[in-house]
UniProtKB/TrEMBL annotation:
This protein's UniProt keywords: Ligase, Phosphoprotein, Pyridine nucleotide biosynthesis
Keyword check for Phosphoprotein: yes
Enzyme class: ligase
Listed name of the protein: nicotinate phosphoribosyltransferase
EC number: 6.3.4.21
Gene3D superfamilies linked: nicotinate phosphoribosyltransferase (3.20.140.10)
Length: 188
């Protein structure tokens, strides 16, 4: 079984509660190895956070550095989500009539764009790991499903999904470029 078979069965109304998936869960025909990469985005010392970057010859492999907050952007009239925005945790994004952002797609030709008239809601919430009470898995699942449901249905297709725009603030983009330039100078 894979995601295509499961989707087909569910769309046909198959009365299935659980799926048992073995190697297809962690591998695919196009990439038969589970490739996970940990990228350090920041270090903390004495309460001070220092952004870190992974330098690569390939722009798409650069780290989106620092402590971040992700905002979902909504059209005020329809309340439909139209993009996500990655910001530094120290930046506060509020409802805006106009904001210049940078596309997070490293292959984009025109990286800067201007967004107008939107409402911004943060997606990340801090978790106190020292707190012994835990959030029930069902609450996490419900929140995740609600956030996924906000995305346009056309972006949720398994085959040929529409792209959902993800932007960075200009401050985050400038910090990334600044650290990249600093690392490039040190390498020369």
């Amino acid at each position: 079984m894979d995601e295509h078979i499961i989707t087909s069965l569910l769309h046909e109304g198959a009365p299935i509660d659980n799926f048992g998936i073995g190697e297809r869960l962690i591998t695919s025909a196009s990439a038969p190895v589970l490739s996970g990469v940990y990228k350090l985005a920041a270090t903390e010392s004495n309460g001070q956070s220092t952004p870190k970057i992974k330098v690569s010859a390939s722009r798409e492999k650069l780290t989106i550095l620092g402590d971040k907050q992700v905002y979902r952007l909504y059209e005020p009239r329809t309340q439909r989500a139209f993009a996500d925005l990655i910001a530094l945790a120290t930046e506060t994004i509020v409802d805006a009539t106009s904001l210049t952002v940078v596309t997070s797609d490293p292959l984009s030709v025109d990286r800067q764009q201007r967004l107008t008239h939107f409402e911004a809601r943060p997606l990340l919430a801090p978790v106190d790991l020292s707190n012994t009470t835990s959030i029930p898995v069902t609450t996490i699942q419900a929140t995740t499903q609600a956030k996924l449901a906000e995305l346009p249905r056309t972006t949720q297709r398994l085959v040929n999904p529409d792209l959902y725009p993800v932007y960075m603030t200009t401050t985050l983009s400038q910090l990334q470029t600044s650290l990249l330039n600093k690392m490039t100078i040190l390498a020369d």
